[in-house]
Amino acid sequence: MCASRPAGKNVGGRVAPAANVSRGAKRVAFGLRTHLSNRRLSPRLKDVGRMSMNHLDDLLKRNQQLAAQQNAAGTLVASLSRALPAVKAIIVGCADMRVDPAYVLGIKPGEAVVIRNIGGRITPGLLEQLGMLGRIGEVAGAIAGGGGEFHIIVLQHTDCGITRLPGDPAMLAHYFQIPEGQLKAKAITDPRAAVAVDVASLRAIPALPGAWLVSGLVYDVATGLVEVVVPAAPIRTAKPLEQLAEHDGRTL
Ligand SMILES: [Zn+2]
């Protein structure tokens, strides 16, 4: 469907259900229409749908090539129960397009569960997802990491978009589900302080296995290097690494 066509008009012989379009989708559609109408595009470039399809075609071609390589190498793992014991870490990272943990840390397929949100922050929404992961592990009957060394890593970065939102306290307070007056404690504008705050938040969660190693990293978008701000250490105890084999066996 052409992005510039108003919702609710006749589309392909049918009437689009404008009444069912969510408010968020309407905002996105409005923004896109405004963006397009503000640009003086040549007739050829106005064919934005075609441009998008070309890019999508490229992505699908890359997928086909990757799938062929994986099938040839036998590296696909089609069973969640078999994949879970091979996971070595949960990484909480920012949604920013420059800081994909798989790319920045060279994560191989199946090596880590990556959860990304704005800022790579520990929020109630993020914790809800951790809880769901735990339940998925229980239902699948598999222990993440196979009972061995397992990491939970908070990966934030310099020049993060969230550092540009101090002027939106209501939005941030809702994000963290705290009063606006407590936002200072979240160190929104300082990734090194924020990563320490979030590691401390994880340490305070009794449901996380005490033997998991928690760490806080900051990726510098200017140098491409990752700095260890909070070194890896067990979540609740000071067990030496050799004792980590005595993992308490809890699922993810
Ligand atoms: Zn960011």
Quick rundown:
The chain is 35% helix and 15% strand.
Report on this model:
The structure is a single chain. The protein has seven helices and seven strands; from the N terminus they run E-E-H-H-H-E-H-E-H-E-H-H-E-E. With 252 residues, the chain is of the alpha/beta class. It has two domains: 10-73; 80-246, Beta-carbonic Anhydrase, Chain A (3-Layer(aba) Sandwich). A hairpin with a 6-residue loop joins strand 6 and strand 7 (226-234). The model is unreliable at 1-24, 29-43 and 239-252 (pLDDT under 50). Zinc ion (ZN) binds next to loops.
Which helices and strands, and how do they pair?
Layout: E1 10-11, E2 14-15, H1 23-37, H2 48-73, H3 80-83, E3 89-94, H4 101-104, E4 112-117, H5 124-140, E5 151-157, H6 169-176, H7 191-203, E6 213-219, E7 226-234
Parallel strand pairs: 3-4, 3-5, 5-6
Antiparallel strand pairs: 1-2, 6-7
Zinc ion binds at residues 94, 96, 119, 157, 160-162.
